[in-house]
Specification:
717 residues, alpha+beta, Beta-galactosidase, Chain A, domain 5, Immunoglobulin-like, ten-stranded antiparallel beta sheet, 40 strands, 31% strand, binds (2R,3S,4R,5S)-2-(hydroxymethyl)piperidine-3,4,5-triol
């Protein structure tokens, strides 16, 4: 499958230190393997019946010294067949109707992929021509391994039908555990959920392409809830289609975690000599609490996954006109906004929905990716040239995967959408989903978007996707391919954005799906940023951002200052800016209506942001106080050299009966990630402090009053 190839190419890097490091040891009989990350050991062995077994996953052990005989935990590739003692991750039907698999070990090979040791273990069915290659790529410094599986039909005739194929499975030692995952709905993305794992199966799944949550999970032994210490098994799926995770606690006490493509209403046929490769599932183990998970996953995204062109660059300050003008756009009014945006320090001016042919409202236009001549009689270039002349770059919104029935595209090709004959074509937001699994649809989108980008000086694309998947029919495809349609769709989605990025390497790409409906490491490896939520209320946003920053790096988190005030609290403009400055800052107000005082605030805040954004975009983020725990939130960013620090303090409520002195005592904030022996000076404060003092004793940040905030710049002297 091409997904895996592009994911791995994206992560391909020069040989790293760890490539030479001993991240894998092979047993003397070449039938066992010890896999090491910074904190963990994963051990596999082949038993006398030629079954590849998992015998350990947890804190670092020196296996061959610590233990002689290893107990069986589970099969590395649990299949449907024989005694089913765990969740199977591979289920097939052979051409003669036999449904059981009997795998036996054949060989192994160790290679380097992108500078990281990777073991490939080959197993085969004892009778049928089915080969299963399971891969484990070891990323020691991020404390995780990546797993994926390639399945081959080695036969000369007959298709093997895959009914289920996950990317991997792990087992955790017997214990009582708590699972934390992140779920959500529109406007309330990534809400943390914590639950005890009791006997039985807990499933988290996406069936329709949008989740508003995440496939990232964290499993801790019960009662270990120090954010910075303690064992956590974690993982995430690097894929943007339908996915499924199962957490299965057996009668005996072990937990098995399986994850991969959701094979609900999906099947893949392997014709003779064909193969299928799954996307990558990440599985990790840290002893640094859930903060360890954040640091590992965010650093990996920032350092290895994000598209290479802009991976190490600071992000521009954006203006997006959606909240100001919605779809009612024209040259004069956009130029007026651009002038104000430029005056306050914005660097990238983006027109959202509404610029293309026939787009007067949500009922029409999607699919026709040419400029609307009624709204822009001189074309877009006339506007872009003027915007560029002001010193701003220009960006545009698109929603390529969709079509309105009221569009030239749909009138010409009503069969290009997902539909089942004799069934309703369900519309969501008055739109249908284009069947991107079709090559003609792919070619149409590639050519029309390429043309828009070629003909206009566009430096930024906001790529939206605004509805859940329904009616995934592909009646014109051969019967054996019809239920693989979602997999092919995602393959072509990735191919489309990758092709456009290749043709226009200087264009930034933002991923959006009615807010944060489709954010995962598959998207992070192809888009530079995410629109995190349509909820731009600053108070709600503090919660959403706290969760987002648990999972992803700050330089991918776009936040706009807008007029929205869902809680009717009338917060100050300064507070709104402070919230949005914790990631990639944008402005979304109708700024032509602002008075001088508002413009001054915006100007000062953008100036301040430009001074600190290098630390925010390139440094590490620590969620020092989570709003889910207290009535305030404190975020800390530390530069790579640990000498520059930015602290955001947001106060969400007051403790009226407490005196200032009591507040002081109860609110000492301990910082993280500093140089213990360096002396730090905090802007706006007189004293200096050693890193050790700030980390072990902590200081009082005097931010009082509800919906007040302050950003502290701290520097090593
Ligand atoms: C949904 C997005 O989340 C919004 O930001 C905006 O782009 C609209 N779509 C436009 O239709």
């Amino acid at each position: 499958m091409k997904n895996i190839v592009s994911y791995l190419l994206i992560t391909l890097l020069p040989l790293s230190f760890f490539a030479q490091n001993n991240s894998i040891e092979v047993g003397k009989d070449e039938r066992s393997w010890n896999i090491y990350t910074k904190s963990s050991t994963y051990k596999l062995k082949v038993d006398r019946n030629n079954i590849v077994q998992v015998v350990y996953y947890g804190n670092k052990l020196e296996p061959d010294r610590d233990v002689k005989d290893w107990e069986y935990w589970g099969n590395e590739i649990p299949v449907r067949g024989g005694f089913v003692n765990s969740k199977s991750i591979l289920e097939v039907i052979f051409p003669d109707g036999v449904r059981d698999i009997e795998l036996e070990y054949k060989k192994y090979e160790i290679t380097d992929i992108g500078g990281y040791k990777t073991i490939k273990i080959t197993q085969q069915d004892k009778y049928y021509p089915l080969e299963v290659n399971s891969f484990i790529r070891i990323l020691p410094e991020y404390d995780f391994i990546e797993k994926w599986i390639e399945v081959r039909n080695l036969g000369k005739k007959g298709s093997i039908k895959i009914e289920k194929l996950s990317s991997g499975s792990i087992f955790l030692p017997d214990n009582a555990y708590e699972l934390t995952h992140f779920s959500g709905i529109w406007g309330h993305e990534f809400t943390p959920q914590t639950t005890r794992l009791t006997q039985g199966t807990k499933t988290i799944e996406v069936k329709d392409f949008k989740s508003y949550g995440s496939s990232t999970f964290m499993i801790r032994p019960e009662k270990e809830n120090d954010r910075y210490n303690g064992k956590v098994w974690f993982g995430t799926f690097t894929y943007s289609g339908n996915w499924r995770l199962d957490f299965d606690k057996s009668f005996y006490g072990k937990i098995q975690v399986t994850g991969g493509i959701n094979f609900w209403d999906q099947e893949v046929y392997l014709k003779p000599l064909q193969s299928f490769t799954t996307p990558v599932m990440i599985y990790g183990y840290t002893e640094e609490g859930t903060n360890g998970v954040t640091q590992n996953l965010a650093s990996y995204s920032r350092e290895k996954l994000l598209p290479q062109t802009y991976r190490d660059k600071v992000r521009p300050v954006l203006y997006n006109s959606w909240y100001a003008t919605a779809m009612d756009v024209n040259e004069e009014q956009q130029l007026a906004l651009a002038r104000e945006a430029k005056n306050m320090g914005v660097e990238m001016f983006v027109i959202d929905d509404g610029w293309f042919k026939g787009r007067i409202d949500e009922k029409s236009g999607l699919g026709d990716w040419t400029v609307d001549k009624n709204k822009f009689p001189n074309g877009l270039n006339s506007l872009i040239e003027k915007v560029n002349a002001m010193g701003l770059q220009f960006g545009l919104w698109i929603e390529p995967e969709m079509v309105n029935p009221n569009s030239d595209l749909y009138r010409a090709h009503p069969d290009w959408v997902f539909y089942f004959p004799n069934r309703t074509r369900h519309e969501g937001r008055n739109q249908l989903i284009l069947n991107l699994a079709r090559e003609d649809v792919y070619q149409y989108l590639y050519k029309s978007l390429n043309k828009v980008l070629k003909e206009n000086n566009i430096k930024f694309i906001k790529w939206d996707m605004n509805r859940h998947m329904t009616d995934p029919g592909f009646a014109s495809a051969p019967a054996e391919e019809q239920r693989a349609v979602r997999i092919k769709y995602v393959e072509n989605l990735y191919r489309l954005v990758e092709s456009l990025r290749k043709d226009f390497p200087e264009v930034w790409f933002e991923n959006c799906s009615s807010g944060g409906g489709r954010i995962d490491l598959g998207m992070i490896s192809r888009y530079d940023f995410n629109w995190v939520s349509d909820n731009t209320d600053p108070v709600d946003r503090i919660f959403i951002q706290d969760s987002y920053l648990t999972l992803f790096p700050a330089n991918t988190m776009i936040s706009w200052v807008t007029h929205e005030d869902w809680h009717k609290l009338n917060p100050s403009l300064e507070f709104k800016f402070d919230v949005c400055m914790a990631g990639v800052l944008g402005v979304g107000y109708d700024i032509t209506k602002w008075n001088d005082a508002q413009k001054q605030v915006a100007k000062k805040k953008i100036e301040q942001y430009k001074e600190i954004r290098e630390v925010i975009h390139k440094g590490k983020t620590y969620r020092i106080v989570s709003p889910f725990d207290e009535n305030r939130s404190i975020l800390q960013y530390v530069s790579v050299n640990q000498k520059e620090v930015v602290v955001f303090v947001y106060n969400l409520g007051e403790y009226p009966r407490q005196s200032v002195e009591e507040n002081r005592r109860s609110k000492l904030t301990k910082l993280k990630g500093l140089l213990p022996d360096a002396t730090y000076k905090i802007e706006d404060m007189n004293s200096t402090y050693t890193g050790k003092y700030l980390m072990e004793v902590g200081i009082y940040f005097p931010v009082g009053g509800a919906y007040n905030s302050h950003i502290y710049s701290i520097k090593a002297l």
